[in-house]
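Example record for the data management plan.
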Amino acid sequence: MILDGAGLSCGDVHAVAHGRAEVAVGPADRARAAWAAARELTGPVYGRATGVGANKDVAVEHGGHDLLRSHACGAGPLVAPERARAMLAVRLNQLLAGGSGVDPAVLPVLAYAVNAGFTPPVRTYGAIGTGDLTALATTALCLLGELPWHGPEQGTGQDAEQGFQQGFQQGEAGAAPVFALAPEDALPFISSGAATLADAALACHRLRELLDAAVGVAALSFAAAGASAEPLAAAVQEARPHPGQAAVAERLRALHAPGPSARVQDSYGYRAFAQVHGAALDALGRAERAVETDLNAATENPLVSGSLAWHNGNFHSAPVALALDALRAALVQTAQLGAARLATLMDPAYTGGLPFLADRPGASGAMILEYVAQDALAELRHLAGPVTTGTAVISLGTEDHAGFATQAARQALRCVEPYEIVLACERVAATRALDGPAPDRPLTGDLDAALSVLRAP
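Corresponding structural encoding:
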């Protein structure tokens, strides 16, 4: 995968993070131009000739490495290697977009780290949506050799000798990436929300897969409950032309070949599925656009453009945070309808069988699936709480607002598991309703099998 600062998608980030693709450095003209311009800058340039935060008016000399050491902080557990790898790929792509003024010789070193499986020891807590300073300062100290990288989990097909010739640590194959980041490049290197965007991209990609899979799961429930296809008719969608709604209805029409329905109207889990699930798809589309804009943007402060350094607020994460807040809320809405369909599958009025899909009167059948689904749904509701209503005032009042996209992205990632579980519960129940009742037995294996299907690439 060639990174050029312009075409990185959420799916690309996911592929790189999980070792399904390697990265190569594409044209670096914009990065080289910004670096050349940055070397000619004079006067008080934030972070290069001054301190940071409330120290913005204090002139400093050669303090960049101390900035990295002071900011390489964090708390909580280490983030998973795939999240750290995604962060490296995102920052590499951002640097290729130009505007940072960082020495472009670091670009192939970051690419080597990604491909060889080296990740920095980044902690979970330490950012509020105005830049992932702690995570990237930790990364910079790894490049300087002051902190150890986490070693590769597996080998790489990249020629190690070629990597060494580009400035990596000399020694045996698989040596850790090292780069002598200049002091004046310290703040420009860490002035990014790359870790937050990486989490957001991973969440959007995985939720896209699950929202697509949910239509197939719903089709099983439609068939099991004998639900009417009337709400899916093209005429209904044309009367209210939301794109997600129309797309869901069209796909479900292709999957669901209904017979005559005994009910004039079904419950909302069926009748309003296209509207609610379509809204979730629309929210996801908006989130993907916001995230991918920033994956390929120069969100640097200051921004080196032309021969000037432009002090600005492009680092602020409001667009991403707002989009992810809406996505998580929409996810709860469609998961609630999934739980509602699950409830109908326990009801003889919908299935024509015994309560709870049991094989004999009084047996519990699939009753427990509702408990599991409602537990997961409660977790989803908790994770859907908006982060964008909060604020923060730090650094002696100099920084008086925060976007909290970091928390929005982290919560979106955490939504994947409980949403998978809600879908798995519905899938198991619908399959049982279609296949016929079975004697009481533990259903953990059935759920695990359903989850495997939902997680299949």
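Summary line stored alongside the record: The domain at 2-192 is CATH 1.10.275.10 (Fumarase C; Chain B, domain 1).
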